[in-house]
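agent> Task received from the user: take the single chain below, predict its 3D structure, and emit structure tokens. No templates, no multimer pairing.
agent> Plan: (1) validate residues, (2) run structure prediction, (3) serialize to tokens, (4) report one or two observations.
agent> Step 1 OK, no nonstandard residues flagged.
tool_call: predict_structure(input=
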Amino acid sequence: MKGHNKKTEIRITPLPWALGPYMRALGPYMKGLKMKRTIAAALAIGVLAAAQVASAATITIATNGKPAQQKAISSVMMGKLIEQATRGKYEVKVAHSATLGDDRQMLKSVKAGSIEITVNSDGAVAEVVPQLNAFGLPYLFSSLPQAWEVLDGPVGDRIAELLDDKGYVVLAWFDNGIRKITHSKKPIASPADIKGMKIRTPPSQVTLDAFSAMGANPAPLAWSELPAALQSGVFEGQENPLANIYGAKLHELTPYIARSNHKYEMTPVLASKAWWNSLSDDDKKAIKRAAHAASWYDRGSFLMQDTELEEVLKQEGAKFNDVDIDAFKNATAPVYAKWEKEIGDIVSNIRSAAAQAAGK
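)
tool_result: status=success, residues=360
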């Protein structure tokens, strides 16, 4: 199996049909931004290159992403955009790699006001607002732009209102891709191949339900603990988008990658409501604008990596295969009925919105 000893050049092909909002949102900020490798290097040493002023207040952005992973890279981008949008009034520091606690702990700290912003995970946030689980229902979305349209519409606004009631302000929705199943020893082509499989999932109940319906033996585990658990054999495989698989080198541990595309996940970007209410209107507008721009940077990165990374992963030893999508859809269909009982009409609303978005 090939590793990362030899660097592979990633050639990115622009996809203007999906990235129009990405380019428009980033436009005002592009002047003076550093290249991605500079951002990652700054993050690795815990320092952000920023406009320095003596009276700058500090904003901490906490995330579980490691420096080379998209969640952390996009967090740094958001920090740089906030610094530029507020003209150096704030110095933004990114606490990556779950250094300020796991997702649940970060949420508690944000609500208490000891952390200003968290780039979190939808599974942990869904424990606060269960309606968020609707976005993770199996086979709801077939493409990232389809998911973004629903997320940025009335259904996403409803989730944001519910989070506001709980003490969180939604600044943006970053991405976490459409997911693939990986296995350490064999390809997965049908639910029969996954029967009894010990698979790691995020701490997301709707994901656990989906894999249980497939016949697997799923268990939740924090992202930061996943590589060690795979290496030790606690799990036979896991599920993630290609960007996360590549960023964490999970293909070196689980080289069989099934194009299951079984669910979508977003990454909620949440601010402390107590802190937010202390800001001026001008600061709120500037920070929201920066977060919105960073969200399109993040989404564009996921979209392009999902297009480009399969070939890169193949060159590094990964083995891809297609799956019987209809068989997986049939196996996971009962998950919808369960969640409609638990979270109500948002399930039918999101299905309708997804169908409408798919038709455009």
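agent> Step 4: summary for the user.
The longest helix spans residues 281-315.
agent> Done.
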